[in-house]
Each structure stands twice: as C-alpha cells, then as structure tokens.
Amino acid sequence: MPKFLIIGMVVLMSGCASSNGSSSGADPKIASNENGLICKSEKVTGSIRAVRVCRTVAETDQDEKRAKEIVRRARNESQINRNSD
Asked: Are 38 and 30 in contact (CB under 8 A)?
C-alpha cells in the first residue's frame, strides 16, 4: 500500500512541475493582433464562463489609472472616517 501512495505522489508532483510547452513565459490567455488590440480571456463575476475582451494599450492604461484612483479614494475615506470617531 505505501508503494502505491509514494508512486501516486511522484506522479502528481511531476505533473505539477511540467510546463505547458510554452517557453516564452507569456500568458497564453493574452494575445495581441495587428490592429494594436490586446485580447485576453476574463472571468465574469458570478459566472464560470470566461469572455474574450479586446482593448487598446491606451484603454488598458486608462482602466488601470481609474482602478488605482478608486482604491486611493477608498483608502482616504477610510482614514477620514477613522479620524472622525
């Protein structure tokens, strides 16, 4: 019995250590095309299905700036609320 357990663990560990064959290190879910769009697969909240979303680099940068601004405002508001108590 212990032999099968050890063999099973070795098989599982070697499966986890194997690569997907891509040596570039790039995310296989992200692709760019000739129009300058960057497309990637994104999971929709509340769904197990992924949707392909394509954006330009400028749109991606703008979305990132907006997200950082929202986080910054939330942090500032939480600090203000703590100080007023």
From this structure: yes
